[in-house]
Write a structure and sequence with these properties.
By secondary structure, this protein is of the alpha/beta class. Helices cover 45% and strands 15% of the residues. The longest helix has 29 residues.
């Protein structure tokens, strides 16, 4: 039943997206890009909260006070579920784009919203395009656009974290923005564990303190991916 309700909600969201585009077109013509992104993100946030409600998902978010205000940030999180992004968008009020696989560019509704908040599409099978996407992300961070990445590169099965790709951490080291580590527990129990059925699930989200790269010792800076992974493992152990 929940699966059907979520499908109906997604279809309705498609209609809502058309209505949204009318006001968005007005803002695009008469307002700043910052206000456009804020409006798009708030609209997307309402939809993700609605989707989680339909899925019977209950969020327990701790550590939101660790997110600095009025500052560009790079959010880094573990990845286990298609629901990770709705969970994070619902939990974090700062407008952020995210790096997603290029296949999402062809998915109706999802690609619509991704484009409106300046998300980056990455083809991990094309090294040149991947480097271009990373450079695009670095520029967006330098220009004040916060980003979310999943450094494992794909959804990971099981309880352990996957390998953090070193290339993804260049987004932080090259832009020198604070890193916000995040751990999500149980997201795979919403859908992946009993696909295609959606199950009501209690989700824990832990948000860590900012990691300031320039304040790390030389070894931690050199092995930034491992350092960030360790901080997320600490958040995981705290649940």
């Amino acid at each position: 039943m929940r699966t059907l309700i979520c499908i109906l909600f997604i279809l309705i969201s498609g209609i809502i997206s058309l209505l949204f585009s009318i006001k968005y077109a007005f803002l695009k013509k008469f307002s700043t890009q910052e206000k456009q992104i804020q409006y798009a993100y708030k609209s997307l946030q309402r939809l993700t909260k609605g989707l989680l409600f339909c899925a019977g998902t209950r969020l327990n978010v701790k550590g939101k006070e660790n997110i600095p205000k009025n500052q560009t940030l790079l959010f880094i999180c573990n990845h286990k579920s298609l629901f990770d992004i709705p969970i994070l968008v619902s939990s974090i009020d700062i407008p952020m784009a995210f790096v997603g696989k290029i296949q999402l560019k062809k998915v109706p509704i999802i690609s619509f919203w991704m484009k409106k908040i300046n998300c980056i599409f990455m083809d991990r099978d094309d090294i040149r395009q991947s480097l271009k996407a990373i450079n695009q992300g670095i520029e967006q961070l330098k220009n004040g656009q916060s980003l979310l990445i999943f450094p494992e590169g794909t959804r990971i099965k099981g309880e352990e974290l996957g390998e953090f790709k070193k290339g993804s951490l260049k987004l932080a080291s090259k832009s020198n923005v604070p890193i916000i580590p995040i751990y999500i527990k149980n997201a795979d129990k919403i859908l992946e564990n009993q696909f295609p059925w959606i199950k009501a699930t209690h989700i824990d989200v832990r948000i860590g303190k900012p990691i300031i790269i320039e304040k790390l010792d030389t070894n931690s800076q050199k092995n930034l991916s491992e350092y960030v992974k360790k901080q997320i493992e600490i958040l995981k152990a705290d649940i």
